[in-house]
Amino acid sequence: MRSSPVNSHSDYLKSGSLILFFSLGLGFIADYLFNLTLSQALSSHEYGDYKVAYAFATLTSMIILLGGDRVAPRVLSGAIENKDRHYIVSFLLFYGGIAMLFSAFVILATYLGGVLHLGKTDVLGHHPLMIITFVIPLIAIGALFSRVLQSAKLLAASNLPWRIALPAIKTCLLLLLMSAISEVEYWHVIVTGGFTVAAIVIWQWHKIRQLDLISADHCRTNVLEKRRLLSLSVPMMLAMLVTMALNQIDLFMLEILADEQDVGHFAAAATTAHLLPVAQVTIAGLFLPLIGPALDDCPDSAKALFLQAQRLIVIVTVILTAAVLAVGPWLLTFFGDDFAQAALSLNVLTAAYSVWAMSAFASTWLQYNGKGRQVMIIGVLTLLTDTLANLWLIPELGMTGAAMATCLAMFVASALTWYQLLIMNTGKSPLQIPR
């Protein structure tokens, strides 16, 4: 006798919760150890430069996918349940092709910037921003493969390699470099990290093929389907920018407007507070493969899943916020004595990330319910708020000003998101763009 969907969902959530919370705890430890090791191998100025480059690669790899990784659980969960392998291949070819095209443009633009000695891309300056662009297409393809596995409810295979294996292997390779050579340089860290990313991408591709999730004899999506996918995925990508770009913009603007040391100190504070958005994304990843098909078959069931996920996110966020506020300043001291001055920035960032962690899943719910345009407006307003606040506060307050700008922007994003959610079924919203 086949189990009912409710029982199946319950079993999946129980097993998935164990995997993802295991991933959250060990993943944070592994990532933190990598950052601590890196801060010992590089000076605080060099560490800040590396974090700027890493932020650029992370942000760019998401943008060049046009939200393909974000929309995957919404559209692929049903295709996988229906064993529509042709659609999955078409999806990968479509967004993979977009990623390769845009990544080539990014690499070319960055190289030309280096040849022309423009800013941080200057070849003679050996800034890691120039080198890390070659890893961007690998990160983008890895995100797509991971989402395919997530959509198939294979949470361990989709999550653990990136959350635990990647930082753990990078730490081991960095320790080997530190013991083998007298001075570790940027390109050593980037190249070893790139090879690690490539290894995970190859393993996940092998896993996808092994599980027979795709068919070699594919069928391309028609023009209408591509347009529909982009109409869903692009707003999702822009909404994710609210979470990712705020921190990255702070790093970029600190690099321009503040002391070099502030960039490294702020990066350490952001790394510590990053536990909160990681927890939110982890919990969301558990529920998204269920919510997509449920919206098509039973909207009331999808709403119940959303409320269940939201309650869990709030509870976990409150607990983790208290933990970071209590021990976060102590954790900063492991980076070095001078990093302790980032304690105030850490507390402000913790408040900022806490507020948005409780709201980010509501933003995803809006997107899944056809409110992508409103979410795009919220994202633009939030980024504008953060940029203007950074211009105002960083020259006066340095990294504390950057943290305050992030906090203000995330409060704006959270308030607008919940406002839009409350009025979603009550008629026209002031944030509605006329068709």
Automatic annotation (TrEMBL):
It is a multi-pass membrane protein. It comes from the Bacteria. The keyword Cell membrane applies. InterPro entries: Poly_Biosynth_Transport, Polysacc_synth. It is found in: Cell membrane. Keywords: Cell membrane, Membrane, Transmembrane, Transmembrane helix. It holds the Pfam family Polysacc_synt. The chain crosses the membrane at residues 12-30, 50-67, 87-109, 129-148, 160-180, 186-205, 229-246, 266-291, 312-332, 344-368, 375-394, 400-419. PANTHER family: O-ANTIGEN TRANSPORTER-RELATED (PTHR30250:SF11), PST FAMILY PREDICTED COLANIC ACID TRANSPORTER (PTHR30250). This is Oligosaccharide flippase family protein. It comes from Photobacterium arenosum.
